[in-house]
Design brief:
2 domains, four-stranded antiparallel beta sheet, Cyclophilin, ATP-binding, single chain, Gyrase A, domain 2, 13 strands, 205 residues
Length: 205
């Protein structure tokens, strides 16, 4: 773990893996909620967590290596369920990458437990981890100029759901009617960093 100063009141904490970043983010959020950590923003990324609005970033940087950070599987949280139709145009390509039959892709994907590692790209877009490494897939060689809102997609180790129509190069495996971003909703984003997510095939309990 390495903590780098960012201005006078922020730290960028670098860790060794995405799993470590998620565990650190969860622990920071917990400590802020209980009142033992004063920080304005906690922003996770692939292998970093940014803390902004700290009273004493130097002191926190010195104390971080001594923290006991529970693994993610030791935590109990509510799960966001997203109904999905596995009808994406790239199902056959994903099946070929995985070395399975097309009909097996939905079962493998829906069986995984996901977590929002971080958010970005567009409001409401979460980068979800949870599939074993052997199911990583490359981005499309030629991105699409328009991916429909609600598309469930894969790229590298991540699953994502497009909150609105936009260009994109991820492999599309399904669609959902879930609203990922609604400015009239509080909170506006359905998914937040650290949230657990389960994809539920439509027609199954």
């Amino acid at each position: 773990m390495r903590a780098l100063p960012v201005g006078d009141r922020a730290l960028l904490v670098e860790v060794s893996s995405g799993e470590a970043a998620q565990a650190l983010h969860a622990e920071l959020v917990r400590r802020r909620a209980e009142g033992s950590l004063t920080v304005r923003e906690i922003v996770p990324a692939a292998r970093t967590v940014l803390l902004d609005g700290l009273d004493d970033p130097v002191r926190l940087a010195e104390s971080l290596p001594g923290w006991e950070i529970p693994p993610l599987n030791a935590r109990v949280e509510d799960t966001v369920e997203i109904p999905v139709r596995y009808d994406g145009p790239d199902l056959a390509d994903v099946a070929a990458f995985w070395g399975v039959a097309v009909r097996d892709v939905p079962e493998i994907h829906a069986a995984a437990g996901f977590r929002v590692a971080f958010c970005g790209f567009a409001p409401g877009f979460g980068y979800l981890t949870g599939l074993p490494e052997r199911y990583d897939v490359p981005r499309r060689a030629t991105p699409r100029t328009a991916v429909p809102a609600g598309s469930v997609a894969l790229a590298g180790p991540y699953t994502g759901v497009y909150p609105r129509s936009s260009p994109g190069g991820w492999q599309l495996i399904g669609t959902t009617d879930a609203v990922l971003w609604d400015h009239a909703r509080v909170p506006a984003a359905l998914l937040a960093p650290g949230a657990r997510v389960r994809f539920v095939p439509e027609g199954r309990p």
